[in-house]
Design brief:
There is one protein chain. The protein is built from six helices and seven strands, in the order H-H-H-H-E-E-H-E-E-E-H-E-E. By secondary structure, the chain is α+β, with helices and mostly antiparallel strands. The strands form two sheets. A five-stranded antiparallel β-sheet has the order 2-1-5-7-6. Strand 3 and strand 4 form a beta hairpin. Helix 2 crosses helix 3. The longest helix has 21 residues. The termini are far apart. The model has no long low-confidence stretch (mean pLDDT 92).
Length: 187
C-alpha cells in the first residue's frame, strides 16, 4: 500500500463529500442521533482509515481490499456489510466500512490508536449499522456482539476492559460502549 493510494482515496472522499454537500454524512449522523456536524464525520473518517490500513499492513493482511471498500456512499461498497462509526470522544466521528466478519478493523488496535490530527488516542464507543440501511435483526445483533467481544477480549481480559451493548435505542444500529477498567481505586 502506498501513500499515493491513501492520498488519492482521501481526495476522492473529500470531493464526493463536497459534491454531495455532505448530505450522506449528515443523514448518517442523524440516523445515529449524533450531532449534526458532518465535517466531524469526514475528519474522523479521513484520520481513521489510514491508521486502520497501517495496522492491517503491520499484521501482513490485505490493506488494498480495505481501502477499496471505503466509499463515500456505503451502499456502493459492494463488499461491505456494515459501517462501524466511532465516537472519538466527541471531537470527531470516524466511519470504517467492513464485511460480515468485522475483521477489516481490529477494534482492540483502534482502542489504542493515536489520531495525530485530533491529538487524542482511541475511542469512546461505536455504532454498527448495515450498509444497506436496513434494521439489524435480533439474531444478527447477537452475532455482532459475539464478534466484537471476540475481537476485544483477544487482546484484553475482562478485568482490563468493560464492553457494554445497547440495541434498545434503535433497531437500526447496535451501540457498543468500550471502557478500559482503571486498576487504581479512587482515594
Amino acid at each position: 500500500m502506498t501513500t499515493n493510494a491513501i492520498s488519492a482515496w482521501r481526495t476522492s472522499i473529500a470531493k464526493a463529500a463536497e459534491a454531495d454537500e455532505m448530505k450522506l454524512l449528515r443523514e448518517h449522523l442523524r440516523w445515529l442521533d449524533l450531532p449534526d456536524q458532518p465535517e466531524l464525520l469526514l475528519q474522523g473518517t479521513l484520520a481513521m482509515v489510514p491508521v486502520t490500513i497501517a495496522y492491517r499492513s503491520i499484521d501482513g493482511r490485505d490493506a488494498q481490499g480495505l481501502l477499496d471498500m471505503q466509499t463515500y456512499d456505503p451502499a456502493r461498497a459492494t463488499k461491505a456489510s456494515y459501517a462501524l462509526t466511532f465516537d472519538l470522544f466527541g471531537q470527531a466521528f470516524g466511519r470504517i466500512l467492513v464485511d460480515q466478519s468485522l475483521h477489516e478493523c481490529d477494534l482492540a488496535d483502534m482502542l489504542d490508536a493515536v489520531w495525530l490530527d485530533l491529538e487524542i488516542c482511541g475511542y469512546r464507543s461505536f455504532y454498527i449499522t448495515r450498509t444497506d440501511g436496513q434494521a439489524l435483526a435480533t439474531v444478527e445483533a447477537a452475532a455482532l456482539e459475539e464478534l466484537v467481544r471476540d475481537d476485544l477480549y483477544f487482546d484484553y481480559s475482562e478485568d482490563e476492559l468493560a464492553v457494554w451493548f445497547d440495541d434498545s435505542r434503535s433497531r437500526d444500529y447496535l451501540y457498543v460502549d468500550v471502557r478500559e477498567i482503571d486498576d487504581q481505586l479512587p482515594e
